[in-house]
Design a protein that fits this description.
Number of helices: 12
Shape: globular
Number of domains: 1
Largest sheet: none
Length: 305
């Protein structure tokens, strides 16, 4: 029987609160497929969910492992799940888990492509898998080169949403319906990149001291705070534009109702001033709630359109 402490350690390493980042784009792609083409294919969607969550978990574990190897999460840094630093899981165990998870992901990908008949999905799956592994793994480690938000934007925003739609419907990639789904995915891409951006703010100094360059520490505190302040209003404008263009129903215009969550986060950043920002990590739940609420509004807007 597995000890409770062991299960708790792996639960900590998995970082479940962040899985909403994967759930929303997949659900949006499924809703678009159901609404625009009538193609539900629940079994295939369940397989897509499974494969995507497996790779999300693998990404989290790879982040822990390679940031530990490179010394990024040592000392006062608060990045990752801290399971290695706290002695709860060994690097070797993480390596074995990664091998198992990426193997499961490959099996899921083979089944998805076989069932959907969309062989062109291989291009997206391979790109996503490499992005997952090389987020902090050398020699690429694009997450250390201020490219994390860009790749999250592409993978967890555009690719997850449109890829789910394509797998479920077998629509041509350049079809007007496919282009419509990409337009629907654009606000989600900014939302999910916004989660990563906020998570980099508490570590703006510790990341830089460890040699990890993020968009936030490239900007510096003042400009990083300004960008965050503008980020979510841009999301609301994109959602409003979908409604005005007739691509989504009226719930897409309700994004500003979630402004109190955004303003609360802005106030926390302002209160931190130019002092230590590590405390901002405790308020990351505000951004996840903001993302979840706006993601649900967009899904509802597609379902009702």
């Amino acid at each position: 029987m597995i000890k409770t402490s062991v299960l708790k350690a792996w639960w900590q390493a998995a970082r479940p609160p962040f899985y909403v980042a994967t759930l929303i784009p997949l659900s949006l792609g499924f809703t678009a497929a159901l609404k625009l083409t009538g193609s539900g294919r629940w079994g295939l969607f369940a397989l897509i969910l499974f494969g995507s969550f497996v790779i999300h978990l693998a990404t989290n574990l790879a982040n822990d492992l390679f940031d530990h190897i490179q010394g990024v999460d040592d000392g006062p840094n608060i990045g990752g799940s801290r399971v290695i630093q706290e002695g709860k899981i060994t690097p070797r165990s993480l390596k074995l888990a990664l091998a198992a998870l990426y193997s499961l992901g490959l099996v899921a990908a083979l089944l998805i492509i076989h069932i959907s008949g969309q062989k062109m999905l291989w291009a997206l799956i391979i790109f996503a898998a490499l992005s997952s592994f090389f987020y902090v793994a050398p020699p690429v480690k694009y997450g250390h080169r201020a490219l994390g938000e860009l790749f999250v934007f592409l993978n967890m925003g555009l690719i997850m949403t449109a890829g789910t739609f394509w797998a479920l419907t077998s629509q041509p990639w350049a079809d007007p319906l496919s282009l419509r789904v990409l337009a629907l995915a654009l606000p989600v891409a900014f939302m999910v990149a916004g989660i990563l951006y906020y998570q980099s703010l508490p570590e703006i100094d510790t990341d830089l001291a460890a040699g990890k360059h993020t968009l936030a520490n490239r900007l510096g505190r003042s400009r990083a705070a300004l960008v965050f302040g503008l980020w979510w209003p841009l999301v609301w404008l994109l959602m409003l534009n979908l409604w005005l263009a007739g691509l989504a129903a009226w719930p897409a215009a309700l994004g500003p109702l979630t402004a109190p969550l955004h303003l609360a986060a802005v106030k926390k950043i302002r209160a931190a001033g130019q002092d230590d920002w590590l405390g901002l990590d405790a308020h990351g739940h505000l951004i996840r709630k903001l993302y979840f609420a706006n993601g649900l509004l967009l899904i509802l807007a597609v379902a009702l359109n």
